[in-house]
Design a protein that fits this description.
Strand content: 15-25%
Largest sheet: 7 strands, antiparallel
Number of helices: 19
Radius of gyration: 22 Å
C-alpha cells in the first residue's frame, strides 16, 4: 500500500483515489482514478468529453510538468459564423448570448474534448497501475448507481442568470438525458435517489478495454461524429483524431520566500502570480485577516489582474501574451504603489455579475513525495449526449467572442482563457501546499486567498479553505455572508460597491493538501460535498 492523501469535492471520487493508493499506486494513479470517478458522480461538472489543466510533481524522477488539455474550436468554426445572431454579452462578462443559444446548448456548443486523452497520458507515463484497473471502478459505479448528493441536485435545479440556459434544460435536451436524469413521471431525480447510467458504464468499459483510441479514432469516434453531423454540430472525426495535449514547464514565481508553481496561459496561473507579486508589497498580516483594509488591497490586486487578463491573456498560439511584464516584480510594484495612493481600478466590462461554477478539482500527494493538482471541467455542459454513450459533452464555444477581430474571437484550433490554476507551493524546494478549485473566474480568487491564508496567516489547509472569502472580478466586491456587515459598511463608506451573497461558502470550491512537519493536512471546501482522505 502507498501512503498518501487525496482531496476533492466528491466523496466517491476521493474514495476511488484512496483505493488506488491502497493498491500500491502513486499520486498520479490516485488522481486519475479520482478524476474518472468524478465524471460518473458529477457528470455536469466534468466528463471524459471535457477539458482541463494538470500539474505533476515527481521529485524522485526529476519531473515537474504541466499537461494542458483545454478545448479548442473545431475545424468547421469560423470567426464570423455567429456574428449576426449576437444578442448581448452575459451580465457576468463570461460568455455571449446568441439567438437560439446555439453556443450554449446543444451540439454546436462543443469544443474538442481533451480530458480522456490527458487522463490516459498521465497514467501511462507517470502512474504505476494499469489503465483498465483504474477505469473499472468508475465503470462499475456508473452501472450500479450512486446516491445523488445535495450539491449535485442544487446544481441541476439552479436557475441561471444573465441569459444563459437553465441547467435543467441541459439535462432534458436529448432523449438520452431524459432517460438518465428524470424519473418515470418526468421529474428530475431527487437527493438520495440512485442514479444509474448503464450507457456510461458500457462506454467506460469500451475505453478500458480498447484505450482512448476508440474514443478519438475508433468505433466510438465514428458514433460521435455521426451524431454531431446529424444534429448540426461542428465537431467532426478529424477534430477527434487531431486532439492532442500540450506539455510545458510550470509557470514559476515566488512570494515571501515561497516558490509558486502554476499553469501558463491559456490557464489562470498568470493571474495568481501577478496578484501575489502585487500583494508582496503589503504587510497583509498586520492589516488583519478580512479587515476592511485587507479586503480593499486584495480586491484592488484582483481587479488589476482581471483587467490585464481581459486585455492581454489568451491562447498563446493565437495571442502574444506579455508574460514577462505581467508577472514581473517591477510591474507589480507599480501596481502596488497605485493601490497605496488610493487609486481605484476600474474593470472595463459591458456588464457585471456573478460567474460559473461548473468545474471540479483534485489535489493528491503520496509518501514518495509525488503530487498532482488537476482541474477539469465541462464548462457549463452542452446538454448533448450521444444516444448509447451516456456522457455529456462540454460547451466551451460559449466563451468565444462572436465578433471577428476581437481578442477572444473564434478561430479553428483556438482555446479560450480559463481561470483554472492547479498550483503548488514550495518552501526551500520542499512541497508545502497543493491547491486548486472549481468556480469559473472565481477560481483564481479562491486559490489566491487560500495561499494567503496559509502563508500570511499561518492557517491549516482546512482553515484556509473554510475561511470567509470575497471576490472582485468587476467594480463590485462580492462577499460571503460570513463577512461582517461592520466590515463591508466601512468599505462602502470608502466608496466601494459591495454585494453580499446569501451563501456562507462561495466564490470557488477550494480543495488543498498541505504538507507540514512531514504530515499531510487536507482541506475540502465546506461549501461542496467533498472530503480529504488519508490512507
Amino acid at each position: 500500500m502507498t501512503h498518501g492523501m487525496i482531496c476533492a469535492p466528491q466523496p466517491e471520487a476521493v474514495e476511488a483515489g484512496a483505493l488506488a493508493l491502497k493498491k500500491g499506486g502513486n499520486a498520479v494513479d490516485a488522481a486519475i482514478a479520482c478524476a474518472l470517478m468524478q465524471t460518473v458522480v458529477d457528470p455536469q461538472m466534468c466528463g471524459i468529453a471535457g477539458f482541463g489543466s494538470l500539474q505533476l510533481y515527481l521529485p524522485k524522477r526529476g519531473i515537474h510538468t504541466m499537461i494542458d488539455f483545454h478545448g479548442r474550436a473545431p475545424a468547421k468554426a469560423t470567426p464570423d459564423m455567429w456574428r449576426d445572431i449576437l444578442e448581448f454579452e452575459s451580465e457576468d462578462g463570461f460568455g455571449f448570448i446568441l439567438k437560439g443559444r446555439v453556443n450554449d446548448l446543444g451540439y454546436q456548443s462543443v469544443t474538442t474534448p481533451g480530458s480522456l486523452k490527458a487522463f490516459h497520458e498521465a497514467l501511462t507515463r507517470f502512474g504505476t497501475l494499469s489503465w483498465k484497473e483504474v477505469v473499472e471502478p468508475a465503470a462499475a459505479l456508473a452501472g450500479e448507481g450512486f446516491l445523488i448528493r445535495p450539491h449535485v441536485h442544487e446544481f441541476w435545479t439552479m436557475k441561471e442568470s444573465f441569459g444563459r440556459t437553465d441547467h435543467i434544460e441541459r439535462l432534458r435536451h436529448t432523449p438520452a438525458g431524459r432517460r438518465i436524469y428524470f424519473d418515470s413521471n418526468g421529474e428530475v431525480l431527487q437527493p438520495g435517489a440512485t442514479l444509474r447510467n448503464p450507457d456510461m458504464a458500457r462506454s467506460l468499459r469500451r475505453i478500458a478495454a480498447e484505450g482512448p483510441e476508440v474514443f478519438y479514432q475508433g468505433a466510438m469516434a465514428r458514433e460521435i461524429a455521426h451524431d454531431f453531423a446529424a444534429n448540426g454540430g461542428l465537431l467532426g472525426l478529424e477534430d477527434l483524431k487531431n486532439v492532442a495535449t500540450e506539455e510545458s514547464e510550470p509557470l514559476l514565481g515566488n512570494y515571501r520566500g515561497y516558490g509558486i508553481a502554476t499553469n501558463p496561459p491559456p490557464g489562470g496561473g498568470i493571474m495568481i502570480l501577478q496578484m501575489l507579486n502585487i500583494l508582496e508589497n503589503f504587510d497583509l498580516a498586520a492589516m488583519g485577516h478580512n479587515s476592511p483594509d485587507y479586503i480593499r488591497v486584495v480586491s484592488e490586486a484582483m481587479k488589476r489582474a482581471t483587467i490585464d487578463k481581459d486585455a492581454h491573456v489568451g491562447d498563446p498560439r493565437f495571442v502574444e501574451v506579455p508574460l514577462a511584464r505581467l508577472i514581473g516584480k517591477d510591474y507589480a510594484r507599480e501596481q502596488a504603489q497605485a493601490i497605496e495612493r488610493g487609486e481605484v481600478a476600474h474593470v472595463p466590462r459591458l456588464q457585471k455579475g456573478q460567474d460559473l461554477k461548473d468545474t471540479t478539482h483534485i489535489s493528491a500527494v503520496d509518501d514518495q513525495g509525488n503530487a498532482v493538482a488537476m482541474t477539469h471541467s465541462l464548462g457549463m455542459s452542452s446538454g448533448a449526449i450521444t444516444d448509447g454513450l451516456g456522457f455529456m459533452y462540454n460547451n466551451s464555444m460559449v466563451v468565444f467572442d462572436p465578433r471577428p477581430g476581437q481578442h477572444g474571437s473564434i478561430a479553428p484550433g483556438k482555446a479560450r482563457f480559463t481561470a483554472m490554476c492547479p498550483t503548488m507551493v514550495f518552501k526551500d524546494d520542499t512541497l508545502r501546499l497543493v491547491v486548486g478549485a472549481p468556480g469559473g473566474t472565481f477560481i483564481t480568487m479562491g486559490v489566491l486567498q487560500a495561499i494567503l491564508n496559509v502563508i500570511d496567516f499561518a492557517m491549516s489547509a482546512s482553515d484556509a479553505v473554510a475561511a470567509p472569502r470575497f471576490c472582485t472580478t468587476s467594480d463590485t466586491i462580492d462577499v460571503v455572508n460570513r463577512i461582517p456587515h461592520f466590515v463591508t459598511d466601512e468599505l462602502e463608506a470608502q466608496g466601494y460597491a459591495v454585494r453580499r451573497s446569501y451563501k456562507s461558502f462561495n466564490f470557488a470550491g477550494v480543495h488543498a493538501v498541505e504538507v507540514r512537519d512531514g504530515k499531510w493536512h487536507g482541506g475540502a471546501d465546506p461549501g461542496r460535498d467533498g472530503m480529504a482522505l488519508e490512507v
